[in-house]
């Protein structure tokens, strides 16, 4: 008997086998892609997971707002909160106002705080809804930071605002700290001072320079990437900060896209401190673990593959590791493509998936970031999403892809 998470491939009523679309390839050629049947995953989580799983969630902008979209921010709050309800229904926690929500790439601090407030309000109506929210220093322009005390005060301001709403904290990496720090001791001082004041244990976030070049040399103050190419020195400083503040740290999210580095740091964590994988390339193996240790999850890719991720985690909770890997295996090529360099533009692929799957009515983004990936990139994303069985309604996905192609002068 198949379990609810098995994700069988079946054509739903009204979807014809052999649905096709012509998609562009390098060199200007158009090739015919024949869609597969989508996988059918449970619409709601059927049981508790054995891993804590957060999806960093995207925001839906309002394309009809009377603003300059390159300078101002307008959010479609109803669609944005509806997507969070979708994630909660699948058993996912929401990591709010993070990089996936375009924090630091169009989403400013006042709008982030309003997003956090609305998400926390919505969560009160959902049983067991989990929310953790990003606190950083992004209202402080890096060039305006004159001292470490400026960075500490900026962290304190955002933490106080989120805690006043009843929120839990994800302590984000700071561009201002990366700019002003002169030694590893500066990082130890800032984090120790900030962590001493939080009400509840936080999740630290180490965001690698592939996601944000302004964070090059984080933890070490070495701004030359060649000075610590394997992040060994940075890992030592990070581990020191965690060990010295273990009672204030629930866990750490590592976003370095390197399984070996995450495993190394995972082995060094004090008892009770969790590793949350932020590795959108190797998440399946890291969540499964090595028989001794495993990672929990705080992933941007879970926004795009939420139904598959939920089904896979349910299988793992039921002791069916083979089924867990079978579900996630075809999502990995999709994720690697979405997070391909320049990695910071992965948000475009996440929002594109939400549009294809009917979670929003348009493919526009805060700051016009829908243009950050090429048509060829999005065409390949479409192919990979189909191969993973993640186009929930193929006819709708094809219609929307043809709209995008037409806007680019291509007849699909």
Q: Could you give the topology of this structure?
A:
Blueprint: E1 8-9, E2 20-24, E3 30-34, E4 39-40, E5 53-56, H1 77-89, E6 93-96, H2 109-123, E7 131-135, H3 148-164, E8 169-171, H4 175-180, H5 184-195, E9 202-207, H6 232-244, E10 249-255, H7 259-268, E11 274-277, H8 283-288, E12 296-299, H9 301-304, H10 306-317, H11 321-328, H12 331-338, H13 346-356, H14 375-387, H15 394-407
Parallel strand pairs: 5-6, 5-12, 6-7, 7-8, 8-9, 9-10, 10-11, 11-12
Antiparallel strand pairs: 1-4, 2-3
Helix pairs in contact: 1-2, 3-5, 5-6, 10-11, 12-14, 14-15
Briefly note the structural class of the backbone. Answer: alpha/beta
The overall pLDDT, averaged over residues, is 94
Q: Strand sequence of the main sheet, in spatial order?
A: 5-6-7-8-9-10-11-12
The total count of helices amounts to 15
Radius of gyration: 21 Å
Low-confidence runs (pLDDT<50, min 5 residues)? 1-5, 10-15
CATH homologous superfamily assignment of the domain at 48-329: Aldolase class I
CATH class of the domain at 48-329: Alpha Beta
The N- and C-terminal alpha carbons lie at a distance of: 40 Å
CATH fold type of the domain at 48-329: TIM Barrel
Give the overall form. Answer: globular
> What composes the largest sheet?
8 strands, parallel, barrel
Order of helices and strands: EEEEEHEHEHEHHEHEHEHEHHHHHHH
Structure, described:
Helices cover 39% and strands 12% of the residues. It is globular. The relative contact order is 0.15. The strands form three sheets. The chain has an eight-stranded parallel barrel with strand order 5-6-7-8-9-10-11-12, surrounded by four helices. A two-stranded antiparallel sheet has the order 1-4. Strands 2-3 form a two-stranded antiparallel ribbon. By secondary structure, the protein is α/β, with parallel strands linked by helices. It contains 15 helices and twelve strands. The chain has a domain at 48-329: TIM Barrel (Alpha-Beta Barrel), CATH 3.20.20. Helix 1 (77-89) links the parallel strand 5 and strand 6. Helix 3 (148-164) packs parallel to helix 5.
């Amino acid at each position: 008997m198949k379990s609810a998470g098995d994700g069988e491939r079946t054509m739903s009523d009204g979807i014809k086998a052999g649905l096709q679309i012509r998609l562009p390839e390098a060199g200007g050629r158009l090739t015919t892609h024949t869609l597969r049947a989508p996988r059918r995953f449970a619409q709601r989580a059927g049981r508790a997971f054995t891993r804590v799983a957060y999806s960093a969630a995207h925001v839906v902008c309002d394309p009809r707002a009377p603003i300059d979209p390159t300078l101002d921010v307008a959010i479609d709050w109803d669609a944005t909160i509806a997507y969070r309800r979708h994630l909660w229904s699948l058993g996912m926690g929401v990591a709010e106002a993070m990089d996936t929500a375009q924090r630091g790439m169009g989403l400013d601090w006042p709008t982030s705080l309003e997003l956090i407030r609305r998400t926390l309000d919505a969560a009160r109506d959902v049983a067991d809804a989990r929310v953790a929210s990003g606190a950083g220093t992004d209202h402080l322009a890096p060039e305006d930071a004159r001292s470490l005390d400026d960075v500490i005060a900026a962290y304190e301001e955002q933490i106080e605002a989120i805690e006043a709403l009843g929120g839990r904290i994800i302590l984000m990496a700071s561009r201002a700290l990366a700019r002003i720090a002169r030694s590893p001791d500066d990082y130890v001082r800032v984090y120790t001072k900030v962590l001493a004041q939080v009400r509840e244990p936080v999740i630290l976030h180490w965001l690698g320079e592939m996601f944000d070049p302004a964070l090059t040399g984080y933890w070490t103050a070495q701004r030359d990437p060649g000075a610590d190419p394997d992040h060994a020195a940075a890992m030592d400083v990070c581990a020191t900060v965690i060990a010295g503040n273990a009672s204030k740290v629930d866990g750490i999210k590592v976003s370095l896209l390197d399984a070996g580095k995450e495993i190394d740091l995972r082995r060094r964590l004090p008892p009770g401190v969790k590793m949350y994988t932020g590795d959108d390339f190797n998440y399946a193996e890291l969540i499964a673990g090595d028989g001794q240790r495993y990672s929990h999850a705080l992933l941007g890719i879970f926004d795009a593959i939420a139904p598959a991720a939920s089904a896979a985690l349910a299988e793992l909770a039921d002791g069916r590791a083979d089924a867990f890997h079978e579900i996630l295996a075809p999502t990995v090529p999709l994720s690697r493509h979405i997070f391909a360099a320049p990695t910071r533009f992965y948000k475009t692929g996440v929002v594109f998936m939400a549009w294809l799957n009917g979670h929003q009515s348009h493919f526009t983004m805060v700051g016009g970031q829908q243009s950050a990936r090429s048509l060829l990139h999005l065409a390949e994303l479409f192919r990979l999403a189909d191969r993973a069985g993640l186009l929930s309604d193929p006819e709708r996905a094809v219609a929307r892809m043809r709209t995008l192609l037409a806007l680019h002068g291509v007849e699909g």
